[in-house]
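Entry:
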Amino acid sequence: MKLALVSGDGLPVSGLLTIFRNVVEAELGSGQLELPVAADLGYSWRPDKEHFFPGGRPNSGYPEWMSVSDVVPVDLERAELMRQLTDIRAGVARADSLDDTERAELRRAVESLAGPYEEYFTRWFDEQDIDWVCAVNMTLSDAVPVTLGLHRAAAKRWSDGRPGGVLFWDHDLFGSCAIFEDGVRLYPVEPNEFTPVPGSHPCHRWAVVSPALAQEVSGYPSPLTAAILPNVLPTVESGQLQDRHTEFLAQRGLDPRRPLLLVPVRMFRVKGVEISVSLFAEIKKICESRSTPAPYLVAFGSLDEDPPYAREVLSLAQELGVQKDIVFLDGVPLASNRDTAGQWRLDEVDLLRLCRSGGGAVLFTPNTADVESVGLGPALAAVAGVPCAVTAYTCFEDFYGTESGCVVIEGQEQRHLAAAAQELQDLMDRTADADPSAVRSLDRDREHVLRSFDPQPWRAHFAAMAREVTPR
């Protein structure tokens, strides 16, 4: 089976791509995949990722099994293409308020870009001889012309009963992704006449990551019922650290005796990195009062994804006097690698191993309750066997239960942060001392997470896709 990935959320630090990596790597030994997996990670069409146009960052560190396209199908300067895509996204979001003339202009703008992307996908599918496309978060209206071009190219390739097609795999949908910019909602609250929805062709399949999203899909104008395919988590191996781990610490001037607090999210406003920085400042105060080694804060996200927000986070760190103890990784690769200067860039799994070995923890602090559809931070902490602190968000209990051992930050006021810092530091100390109650709590969280994120539905779905395109 020859697989392609088309991602609407293409930064390597994105949870979508790390989960896709976990899915593929779990299947590498099955013999069902023909490698490499062809991938287009959306760098040519995401207006909010203009600093990654057209092929992502240098030294992105993709796995050996992935071949990433850097084609730009539209013959426009980057700034003009980004402007057009931004205008289209804004128009789609406020479609209900457009008059007939504005609707016609929006439709012309969509068609002017959809044509080149249709041609590109048609050619790409043929050249790579693709059986199945996994289209990740392409239902949202970040780039309606690209989604429309994808639909049309798929209809051409998988016509006349040809086996295979497109698996639309959504982690976010319109109603449940309430992101605002400058007070304006980024997406419409539901599909409208401009938003292609899976189900318009027999080659379409649809999957989502949670029952809540499946319920939302049931109200969409589509004949499809979305399958629920839970996220697949990585395996964080135990045992001694490798040379790359110790070299990473040395290259960044990090004292191996000090714990690492990981913030495994993108540098994007709704992810609430500023809350993690404020919590870290309170933890530093506690460590200083106890005369114990203070941790480092290690933030995964790229500073170039949302530069105005990144500047705010950097300014806050400076104001709180913690900037020297924060490591901004500027993006985390899908696979650990050395860059051209010989510096190690570690992936999520290797960073979790370092976190565990040094007695660290994970911070997951979204500042908007109704944007996360799952929230992977607590799951990563659980599989690594380390404590976790979280802000309250809507779907947390759906995935982590009411008996989670996570430290919940009750608010953003200083007193709430101080209380959560005290609780988290105490839990880290007890974990380091192998306190039986702390160990039991972490074990319980791990068992719960492994049940909640059962990989079996993905394995079964993947096997069915392979059977469909395998000659008998």
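The two ends are 13 Å apart (CA to CA).
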